[in-house]
Amino acid sequence: MRTTVLIIGGGVTGAGLARDLALRGVACVLVDKQDVNAGASGGNHGLLHSGARYVGSDPLAARECREEGEILRRIAPHCVEDTGGLFVAVSGDDEAYVADFPDLCAKSGIAASRLDAKTARDMEPALSDRLIAAYAVADASVDPFKLSLDNIGQAMAHGARFLPWTQVVGFRLNAGRIRAATLRDAANGREYELEVSLVINAAGAWAGRVAALAGPHVDLVFSKGTLLVTQSRITDRVINRLRPATDADILVPGGTVSILGTTSVRIPDPDDCRPTIAEVDQIIDEGAAMVPELNATRYIRAYSGVRPLFGKTSAGSGDRAVSRGFALLDHARDGVENFVTITGGKLTTYRLMAEKAADLVCAKLGVDAPCLTATTVMPPYAGGRWTEPGLAPKKWLKATDPTDAILCECEMVSKSVVDDIVRTMPAASPGTTLLSIGLRSRIGKGPCQGGFCSLRVAAHLYDTEVVRGDQGLCEIRRFLDERWRGVHPILFDFPLMQAEFQEAVHCGLFGLELVPGDETWKEDA
């Protein structure tokens, strides 16, 4: 096999790079050792920043967020819910920062309209009655999975290839250049070489490990951010705490739920990332200061992502002091001429990161085609449409087909939707079909967190001969193990009893404790 550019990492930056290069006519292959958005791109608020969060700490990042948010609204409005946002301060918050906020916004070109407390509470009744200041800004929410899948869809329409469950395990170098990458197919363990002209490392928190395969060292700090998902939507708008960035100060509406977070906790290994009970308690306590309802609402899940922060922290400084900007590293300086790393950054600025990286790549390749991603509309991709909350029930109700049984009652996902996802998604590795369907739909996102729908979907996959033998049982176990990481830290009272009932069903009827969990399912010879 051969390609011009190999992109490593199927997060939103890698997906944006594939789209950028494909639109310039550069052949490329995008690989990920798991599936789309397996890292930080799938573990965030889904917040399209106005930039106001960074006006006090990083004015450049603030301007980039403002500009990129405007671009994304133009090229992919179907990925964005233009909610608007509020920055609110409550009694006890830093009044000096509150006083400086409008001028800081103005310096970064960010519109911030002052509201009196009554008006703000009329707009969002869930806000605290201890409000001392409020400003309206142009925040929005964005579906990160639809965004990545739509980027990949347009890239593939222009000739790019996407290979999920494909890990880069080595490089063959000669005379200071990478000649080929060794890829391992998770489905069968087979390794093979892909000859390349250039490699882009967009592996997020794993970028240092990928770079080391070719020799260069990349300084990264792993900052875990934990978030909580409420069972219902608390506010219509994004709510930000009006203070210097710290923990649990953003509440983002996402479809029918709200997402509260985040934290910033240094961890030594990006593979060891899961929410803890202590983080959950801290997030709720902090968030309830601006939205008291958060103290009493039901949460259905916690999850964590790892921010790959570029650079080192000085002694005594926290990870909040490390820039949230991005770094573009040309490893020619390290003696590898055709190797580039792009890391850091934010969901909001992914397109800009991809453009800068693609500009460098094209300069190295002698390609003079301009970047088109800021002006070319990104159409919805069929393989990503079922991530949208509410779409599956709308289609089901409109079709009125009595044979199209509902498999996920929480989100009303039917058999025909599952069939459509299986038809449009890349070939999954044995053992990951259910996980890949979950990434491309609302299955497992509701209150049961896959406790019942995983069984029904697996049964349908058996009926349609997508899985066979023990594969379905192994996939159920793996799917539930993944959801359990986020359910376990929030269980108490009645939800704890429900979880114990589900465990009794899973073990008593299906014997799931006896089948492999995290181990990748291997087909019998």
UniProtKB/TrEMBL annotation:
<keyword id="KW-0274">FAD</keyword>
<dbReference type="GO" id="GO:0046174">
    <property type="term" value="P:polyol catabolic process"/>
</dbReference>
<dbReference type="GO" id="GO:0009331">
    <property type="term" value="C:glycerol-3-phosphate dehydrogenase (FAD) complex"/>
</dbReference>
<dbReference type="GO" id="GO:0046168">
    <property type="term" value="P:glycerol-3-phosphate catabolic process"/>
</dbReference>
<dbReference type="InterPro" id="IPR000447">
    <property type="entry name" value="G3P_DH_FAD-dep"/>
</dbReference>
<dbReference type="InterPro" id="IPR041854">
    <property type="entry name" value="BFD-like_2Fe2S-bd_dom_sf"/>
</dbReference>
<dbReference type="InterPro" id="IPR006076">
    <property type="entry name" value="FAD-dep_OxRdtase"/>
</dbReference>
<dbReference type="GO" id="GO:0005886">
    <property type="term" value="C:plasma membrane"/>
</dbReference>
<dbReference type="GO" id="GO:0004368">
    <property type="term" value="F:glycerol-3-phosphate dehydrogenase (quinone) activity"/>
</dbReference>
<dbReference type="GO" id="GO:0010181">
    <property type="term" value="F:FMN binding"/>
</dbReference>
<feature type="domain" description="FAD dependent oxidoreductase">
    <location>
        <begin position="5"/>
        <end position="354"/>
    </location>
</feature>
<dbReference type="GO" id="GO:0050660">
    <property type="term" value="F:flavin adenine dinucleotide binding"/>
</dbReference>
<protein>
    <recommendedName>
        <fullName>Glycerol-3-phosphate dehydrogenase</fullName>
        <ecNumber>1.1.5.3</ecNumber>
    </recommendedName>
</protein>
<keyword id="KW-0560">Oxidoreductase</keyword>
<comment type="similarity">
    <text>Belongs to the FAD-dependent glycerol-3-phosphate dehydrogenase family.</text>
</comment>
<dbReference type="InterPro" id="IPR017752">
    <property type="entry name" value="G3P_DH_GlpA_su"/>
</dbReference>
<dbReference type="Pfam" id="PF01266">
    <property type="entry name" value="DAO"/>
</dbReference>
<keyword id="KW-0285">Flavoprotein</keyword>
<dbReference type="InterPro" id="IPR036188">
    <property type="entry name" value="FAD/NAD-bd_sf"/>
</dbReference>
